[in-house]
Amino acid sequence: MQTHADPCSQPSLMHPDQAIVKLLEQVKPITDSEVVTLPQALGRVLAEDLASHIDLPPFDNSAMDGYAFRFADLAAGQPLKLIGQSFAGHPFTGECLPGACIRIMTGAPVPHGYDTVQMQEKVTADGEQITIEAPKEIGANVRCRGEELSSGTKVLSAGTLIGAAEMGVLATIGASQLRVKRIVKVAFFSTGDELRPVGSELGPGQIYDSNRYSIQGMLSRGNIEWIDLGVVEDNKEAIRQAFQTAADCADMVITSGGVSVGDADYTKQILDEEGQITFWKLAIKPGKPFAFGHLGDAVFCGLPGNPVSSMVTFYKLVWPLLTKMQGLPQSQPVTLQARLKGEIRKQAGRVEYQRAILSYNANGEAEVAITGGQGSGMLTSMTMANCFIILAQDCDGLSDGTQVTVEPFNGVLS
User: Fold this and answer.
1) What pLDDT score was predicted for residue 271?
2) Coil, strand, or helix at residue 172?
3) Cβ distance 368 to 341 under 8 Å?
4) How many angstroms separate the CA atoms of 52 and 218, rounded?
């Protein structure tokens, strides 16, 4: 196809991959920590290494329902005498006699003196006379004390995100309280006299404020405390007060709109007066205008006003910053190759993230098609999509059947 330049593209536009590297250099992880109980720890980030103070498992126990005995006693080829039982929480307390065995359940302690367990399916019982099919080796079906970890062993490292599996491990070692990183706080608001709250009547030239709800939804996907400061009127002092309030109560301040060239509002003026802000022009579509800097001790991110542009720049630029602020490692997005269904029109100049639907055909092959119109104001396209098709900066369109790079939505957008 013939290359056409993007009319919104200039040589000075920064590639988004380069931008995120520069942005990450300018934020630091939260260092404050607090102690929480185990039920409060889900989704939090460990602030220190955590070692176990017990062996795991804490005692020799059976890996299955069956019978416990001395392996050497099987050499005689005689039935063993049943002398007792061991259940989880109710161990056998008698004497482990030679030529004898006990009934044992999964997880129950294997008493000292017995060294092997055979599953009940390979045992014949005749009253108290138990004939056991010899296992292959001594110690069969016994989970030994400390075989998973011994007391003093590090279980989880500082910086670990505590999920469901980690919660289970922590409970297993009896960790009732944990030191975790303080939750990152994010304040956000919208500006514009044209914005109206949901549930009110629209007047001429007015629209509902949707960006705040999208931002709230994405922030809620992480363990982040968000502070919604609402819609701020186009009044210089009202905007100044909103910025000051946000910076005083949060680690990051996010706004949407008011960062494009030629915007006739007070946002840029107040930012220049109150903070250290740089206005970036990025080679990204939807997107391009983005503001970043600091308001006092808070990080500031100014997103474009168009709804899809706001979501895409949050997803690609702001979320990695929040990840670092939480003390979590950066991870590369998962991508895959899929066959394009239909054509895609594009002008060279910017990296594009086109909303699309990823599916698999009858042969298990990945296929992808755009959702339709890709305008930056068409927020419904995000509800139909489950992925982005990533189009390189120099791409000038694609034909049907082309293999394309697809980035499935992660938990932030899905």
Assistant:
1) 87
2) helix
3) yes
4) 35
DSSP state of 405: E
CA atoms of 349 and 176, how far apart (whole Å): 54
Task: Assess contact for 332 and 285: CB atoms under 8 A.
Answer: no
Nearest CA among 112, 130, 111 for reference residue 122: 130
* Dihedral over alpha carbons 29, 271, 200, 287 (to 10 degrees): -70
Rounded Cα–Cα distance for residues 280 and 257 (Å): 14
The whole-number pLDDT of residue 264 equals: 47
Distance CA(374)–CA(379), nearest Å, equals 9
Positions in the chain short of pLDDT 50: 1-3, 7, 264
Nearest to 324, CA basis, from 27, 16, 26, 22: 27
- DSSP three-state, residue 135: coil
Per DSSP, helices labelled H in 100-234 are: 164-172, 211-219
- The pLDDT assigned to 327 comes to 93
**pTM reported for the whole predicted model:** 0.85
Q: How far apart are the first and last CA of the chain?
A: 34
Structure tokens at 124: 């014949």
Q: Tokens at residue 306, please?
A: 């168009």
pLDDT for position 265: 59
Q: What is the pLDDT of residue 194?
A: 86
Q: Calculate the alpha carbon distances from 222 to 108, 328, 331, 373 in Å.
A: 40, 11, 15, 30
- The secondary structure element, H or E, covering residue 103 is strand 100-104
397 CB burial (10 A radius; 0-12, 13-18, 19+): middle
**What pLDDT is attached to residue 6?**
56
